[in-house]
Amino acid sequence: MILRKIFKRRHGMTLVELLMVVAVLTILIGAGMAAFPGMQDSAKRSTARTEVDALSKACMSYMNDLKAGTAPTTLGSLVGTVAAPAIAAANSNDGMAKVTYVKKTGWTTDPTSFTDPWGNAYVYDAANQTITCTMNGGTSYVQSF
């Protein structure tokens, strides 16, 4: 009779066991959340570098296509429309209009629309042919073109 009680199958979990499972899950989730902000910042830095590199290449293409060979006056010059292309056919080396050099949602002909993942404007210097991202106040990333 006593052996039957000992070997009798239990169904479900006790309250203590349930509390232990919840405690372990809480610790694991807390540890994962502590690493998450670092991963977000790393992703933003990578995005910013990629965007600066793309803008730099777009500036080089713009200079190669323009008869005068000069850098764009602003980053907004890299974006155009069919009605108002970035480079008109008359100013193009090959006689064809160049509509746009960069496409990203939110980037327009307004130079202030070119912002990094933190919402800060990219620093464009046409005279020195550089584009700079301040990386949210951290180490700046500068790309020449």
Characteristic terms for this protein:
3 strands; mainly alpha; elongated; about 140 residues; three-stranded antiparallel sheet
Fraction of residues in β-strands = 5-15%
Please give the share of residues in helix.
25-40%
**Sheet with most strands: strand arrangement:** 1-2-3
Q: Which consecutive residue ranges, at least 5 long each, have pLDDT under 50?
A: none
Count the beta strands: 3
Secondary structure class reads mainly alpha
Radius of gyration from the alpha-carbon trace, in angstroms: 28 Å
Q: Helical region count?
A: 2
Taking the sheet with the most strands, its summary is: 3 strands, antiparallel
* Ends distance: 87 Å
Task: Identify the overall geometry.
Answer: elongated
Instruction: Please trace the helix and strand order, writing H or E for each element.
Output: HHEEE
Topology:
Layout: H1 2-7, H2 15-65, E1 123-125, E2 130-133, E3 141-144
Antiparallel strand pairs: 1-2, 2-3
Describe the structure.
This protein is mainly alpha-helical. Helices cover 39% and strands 8% of the residues. The chain contains two helices and three strands; from the N terminus they run H-H-E-E-E. It has a three-stranded antiparallel beta sheet with strand order 1-2-3, covered by helices on one side. A hairpin with a 7-residue loop joins strand 2 (130-133) and strand 3 (141-144). The radius of gyration is 28 Å and the shape is elongated. The model has no long low-confidence stretch (mean pLDDT 84).
